[in-house]
Amino acid sequence: MEKVLVCGHRNPDMDSVCSAYAFAILQNKVIKNQEYEAVRCGKLNESTKGAFERLGLEPPSFIKDVRTRVSSVVVNPEISIDGNEPIHKLISIFQDNDISVVPVTREGKYLGLLSIDEINRYFLKEVSSERPSYKLNLETMNHVLKGSFIKKGKVSKMELKIMVAAMSFTKFREQFDGMENKDLPLLVVGDRIEPILEAVYRQFPVIILTGMSEKIKRLVDFSKFKGTVFLSETHTSETLRLLRLCLPVEEILEQNPPIINYECLFDEAKSILMHSHFRGLPVFSGETLEGFVTRRCFLEKPKTKIVLVDHNEEDQAVSGIEEAEIIGIIDHHRFGLKKTNTPIFINSAPLGSTCSLVTQMYERYGIPIDYNIARILLSGLISDTVILRSPTTTEEDKRIAKLLCEAGNVEDIQKFGQIMFDSGISIKKQNPIDAIQSDFKIYKEKGLKIGIGQYEVITLKDLDTYREKYIEALEIVKKENSLDWALFMITNVVKQDSTLLTTGLDTVEYKLIYQKIADKTYSLPQVLSRKKQLLPEIIRALEE
Q: What CA–CA distances, in Å, run from 59 to 43, 55, 355, 487?
C-alpha cells in the first residue's frame, strides 16, 4: 500500500504535531488505498510531549528528511542459490526468470550476488593462453552430468585440469612421466581399456567414462583405486561441456564487492552502482541483508508523498522537501508555496489553529471524534490561540473548542490549558538554544532572511535573570541559520503580553511601534500572535 507522510514544520509546536497526528488517523479511516503516517521533523517541546503522555499516546515519530533513499527501490530476493550448486543451475535460473542478479547463500548466510556478467567472465577465461583448472564438487556433479558413480573417492572437492584420452596410448603415457600425483588431471576417456588401466595404476583423482556400459566393472579392477570413477551417459564432447558447468557458483563470486546501506540516499546509491562493473549490489541494514538493487532500479526516482500541515513554505518544511511530492496542504498561515507540478489538495482558512481545520474535516467526513483525538486537537487549538485569547481566535475556533471539550469530556478549558502550559520546562531552566528553536520559523521578506521564535511562559517577572544569555543564544541561532535578523518572542499566557528579544537590526528596529525597555529588548503589550501581530509589524517596518 502506498504510504503518505503527514508532517508539520521544523521546530514543531503543539498545533503542528497534534494536527498531523489527528489528520493521519482521519485519512486512514477515509482513504483505503493509501496509508497515512504522522511524522515530525524536530524535537518535541515539553508541553507537546506532556499532552501525549497524559493520554498514553505515542507521538509522531521523528524523521530527518524526506529525500529519496535506496530503501524505496530495494528488491527483496524471491530466488537464491546455494554456493555449492553448479553454474549449470544458475544458468537455468537466468533462463527461466526475468531477473538481473541472483543472491548466493550458504546455510542461509549471504555470500554475494551473481549475474550473467560473472558467468561470461568465467567462460572468457578459457580463451586465455594458460590452461585452466576447474573446481569440482562431486556431491553436485551428478546433478549436471547424467550418469552414475562406479566408485567415489574420499575427496569430494578438488581443483583439477581436464584431459581427454584421444591421443595414442604411447603419447598418453608420455604426458605423465615425471608428473607428481598432485598434478594429475581429471581424465575423460571413451571405450579405451589401456588408458583406463593406466589411469587406475597412476591413481588419477577422477576418471569419467563415456560411451561405455556397466560391463567396464568386469573388465577393470577398481578395488585398489582410491579416486572417483563416474560413468557418463553422454558422449565425450557433451560430457566435457557439462563438466565446465559443474563448478560451484560460489567460486565465481568476486571478493569484497561494494555494499549499500539501507538508508543510503538514492542518488548516492545510484552513483556507487554506476561507477562499478556490477549489475547489482547488496543492500544491508547493519548486518542484515535487506535485498539488492540493480541498474533497472534507478531508471526512475520515486518521490516521497507528503501532506504539509501548519505550514506551506519550503523554508519551514522538513529537509529534502524539494525531492518529495507534496500532495496536500492544511494550513492557517499566509501562502508562500512555490508552484507545484500537479494539482494538490489544499485546506486553508484564517482560523486560529490548524487543529481547527482538521476538526472541520472530521465533521465534513462524518467521522466521530473520540476522547483521545478530541483532547489532542483541543491541545493544539488552545496552544496556538493561547486558550482562545489570541487575536487570531475566531468565532469558529470557539465553536470548535466547545465541540472538542464535549467530545473529550473537558469541563474547564481554562484549567485544561493551564495544565498544558504548566507542563513545559521553565524558560529559566531550559537550554536557551533549545527554547529558541522549539518553535522557530524562518521568513524571507524584502531581501532579508528573518527568524522568529516564540515561547509561552506563565510569568515574565524573572526575565532579567535569563535575558542576556538568551540574547547570546539568539546570536548563535542567527549564525547557524545564516539569518540577517533573529527575534525571540516570550509570551506570558496569563497576562496576555510579550517581550521581544532581538539580535539587533538598527536600520529597521527604530521603526517598530514597540517600546524599547533594554538593549535588544522590547515590550509587546497585548501581543500574543507571531503570525497576526508581530510578523505584520516587522513587514511594515521593513517596507517603510
A: 11, 10, 15, 29
pLDDT in tens, 335-354: 887 788 889 999 999 999 99
Residue at grid coordinates 598432485: 182
Q: Which of 452, 483, 464, 465 is nearest to 521 (CA)?
A: 464
Asked if 264 and 70 count as a contact pair (C-beta separation under 8 A), the reply is yes
Confidence of residue 121 (pLDDT cuts 50, 70, 90): confident
Confidence of residue 134 (pLDDT cuts 50, 70, 90): confident
Q: CB–CB of 473/433 below 8 Å?
A: yes
176 DSSP β-pair partners: none
- Please give the grid coordinates belonging to residue 171: 603419447
The rounded distance, in Å, linking the Cα atoms of 431 and 435 is 6
- Nearest residue to 438 (alpha-carbon basis) of 57, 16, 60: 16
> Residue 83: what are its φ and ψ, rounded to 5°?
-60, -25
Mean pLDDT of 401-414: 96
Sheet holding 101-106, edge to edge: 81-82, 101-106, 109-115
Q: So what's the pLDDT on residue 419?
A: 86
Q: Per residue in 486-510, pLDDT tens?
A: 999 999 988 889 999 999 999 999 9
Structure letter (DSSP) for residue 495 = T
Q: Are strands 497-502 and 521-524 parallel, antiparallel or unpaired?
A: antiparallel
Q: Which residues of 72-90 are buried (b: 16+ CB within 10 A; e: fewer)?
A: ebbbebeeebbbebbbbbb
- Phi and psi angles of residue 155, each rounded to the nearest 5 degrees, phi first: -90, 125
Rounded to 5°, the CA angle 309-470-493 comes to: 55
Joined grid coordinates for residue 18: 497534534
Residues 6+ apart with CB under 8 A from 289: 103, 110, 282, 283
pLDDT for the residue 128:
65
State the cell numbers at 263: 538508508
